[in-house]
Amino acid sequence: MYTMFNHSHQGLALLSLLLTLGWAAMVLLAPRTVATLGRPQRLCYIGAMATTGLVGVTGLLLGLLQGSWMTMLFPWLGLAAVIGHGIAGVRSRKALIAGQKAAAVVAVMVQVLLLVAAYGLMTVKPF
Q1: What values do phi and psi take at 71, rounded to 5?
Q2: How many whole angstroms separate alpha carbon 104 and alpha carbon 92?
Q3: Per-residue model confidence as pLDDT tens digits over 29-68
Q4: I want to staple 37 with a disulfide (CB 3.0 to 4.6 A). Which of 41, 53, 95, 120 is the partner?
Q5: Nearest to 112, CA basis, from 81, 70, 79
Q6: What's the number of domains the chain is made of?
Q7: pTM
Q8: 82: domain range?
Q9: Residue 31 in 3-state DSSP?
Q10: pLDDT, position 64
Q11: Which stretches are transmembrane (predicted)?
Q12: Closest Cα partner for 26 from 50, 51, 46, 45?
C-alpha cells in the first residue's frame, strides 16, 4: 500500500510540475488583454491545480501510513507548498483575466518556485 501511494505521489508531483510550467508558459505568451481563458489555458490551469491537490492528498496519506507524521517536516512543507500554489494560481488567473499581465507573471513565478523548491526538497531530503 505504501509503495503504491509513494509511486503515485512521485508521478503526480512530476505531472503537477509539468502542468504548472505549461500554465506559466501560457501566461507568459498570453496577449495583454484576455477576456476569458481559452480552452487550452483552462485545461492546463485546471490540470495544474488538480494534480497539485492530488499530490498534497497522496503526500498526507504517505505521512499517515508512516505513523509519526506530526513530528515529520515533509508533510508540513508539502502542505505549505500546496496552499501557496493554490493561492498564487488563483491570483495569476484572476490577474490575467483582469488584464494585469505583470501581476499574473509574478504570481505564476511564485507557483513555479514553490513547486520546484518542494520537489527539490522532497527528492533530495537534506534533513
Answers
A1: -90, -10
A2: 4
A3: 988 777 788 899 999 999 999 999 999 999 888 888 887 7
A4: 41
A5: 81
A6: 1
A7: 0.90
A8: 2-124
A9: coil
A10: 84
A11: 12-31, 43-65, 71-90, 102-122
A12: 45
